[in-house]
Amino acid sequence: MKTRRWLSKDEDPLRQGVSAAQKAIEAAKLSVTDIDLVLNASGTPMQAIPDGGALIAAELGMRGKFAFSVHATCISFLVAFQQAALYLDSGRAEHILIVSTEAGSRGLNFNQPESALLIGDAAVAVVVSKPVNEDQRIVASGFSTDIHGIHDAEIRGFGSRLRVDNAADHLDDFKFDMQGLKLLRGAISWFPPFLESVRPGLSTSAEGVDRVIPHQTSKAGMEMMARFWGWEKMVVTLGDVGNTIAASIPLALHRAGMEQGETALLVGTGSGTHYGALIVQW
């Protein structure tokens, strides 16, 4: 990994996400009033209450439109994309805004350089709209949670299980704790059968897929995925921006520059341990 970017102490991840949202809406040749639903798909919450989706909608000046969060750590964007497709298929929405804004640098434990040097900050936004033809669709999808890795990557604080008035006595509980080797070993065991459940043969071949858009976990994690599909089809941003949590897949998707008619595999793992995969035809 060559570079990664962190917000300064004066920069706001909410403003970062809203800026990305405004650019996405403009790129879609829409206005804020055209957006029917906002999905905040961020692994690092901006605050506990109110919900991050509502905060983004408020900054955009939206009223009367639903906004909420979809949280599945690093694969939050994948889950939000799936949810957006369900809303579009049901006719309940025409244009959906997904925002992934990450400031993971603010919860790092610098006594754990493996993760402290890996995480980068980023914000990405995507507008998902009703397809213009029947070929534009999710071809296959799957999600799973391997509970054996539940504590291998976590921040124990900032919820109701630990009292904030005692935070000074256990500051490390309010920082990111990652057991990278255990996560990798778990993924090596559980990820191939998960991929086979999404589509038979997917753990050994990307046949019929033009680009593989993976969550940018780590150098070892990317090498594992390259053993499945090879480097040629994989879009890699890890060396440029680090692991940007839920923003990593849409950031790599932007880098890929998909063309109409092409097919992409969006795939990744997240703390939990969550696995997710979507095969999408553009």
TrEMBL record:
Residue ranges annotated for the Beta-ketoacyl-[acyl-carrier-protein] synthase III C-terminal domain, each copy included: 205-282
What is the name attached to this protein's record? 3-oxoacyl-[acyl-carrier-protein] synthase III C-terminal domain-containing protein
Residues annotated as domain Beta-ketoacyl-[acyl-carrier-protein] synthase III N-terminal: 68-146
GO annotation, biological process: fatty acid biosynthetic process; secondary metabolite biosynthetic process
Recite the UniProt keywords alphabetically: Acyltransferase, Transferase
The record's listing under InterPro entries reads: ACP_syn_III_C, ACP_syn_III_N, Thiolase-like
**Gene3D superfamilies xrefs:** 3.40.47.10
Please provide, alphabetically and separated by semicolons, the GO molecular function terms listed in this UniProt record.
Answer: 3-oxoacyl-[acyl-carrier-protein] synthase activity
